[in-house]
Amino acid sequence: ARQVVPGEARRSPTTLELCLLVPPTTTAVVVRVDFQKAFLTVYQHPPDASRGMDLPAVIATLKPGNGSWPSPPPPLLSGSPLYRHLAASHVVQVSSDGALVQLAQPDFSMPYNVCCLTSTVLAVYIGSFLNALLKRPTPLLTPSEVAAAARRRKLRVATVLVVFGATTLHIDKVARRSVLAWLEHIGIRF
Known about the structure:
Elements: E1 2-5, E2 15-18, E3 53-55, E4 59-62, H1 81-88, E5 92-95, E6 99-101, H2 110-134, H3 143-171, H4 173-185
Antiparallel strand pairs: 1-2, 3-6, 4-5
Helix pairs in contact: 3-4
């Protein structure tokens, strides 16, 4: 009898059940299984990723083919405590030790580095843009020219705020929903 329950990627492991008829003179049984390695995402790693992942133990159920164990025991197994235990009962389950699999450990500092670099580039860009847009050398001006320059400056500040506000609303859906809800609350509908 054989039963294979295929695993789902990153959800459940594969389960393999085999029923083997092994001659009594056999000293070892080796089962080999081909598999493909799958990379884990950052969020699927255990808290201590450098420790690795635990594999559960293998459970072997031993049962004699004809319903009873041979008596007297074969010479190779005559002093074996396992054989004495098997001969005392009809079915025995033996489990192996679990295993610890070392996984490739990703660089968990990468998201932090990307965030810092992106924020720095944006800060330099926005700072340079605002500086070029708002700061002008001012020669000696008459009062009417100062008033006109103040109006132009206020217009530039309003333009920058509208551009950055529109960009934020275009990118951030949550902010867009909040602004639309506020506008509907004050009576402006889109």
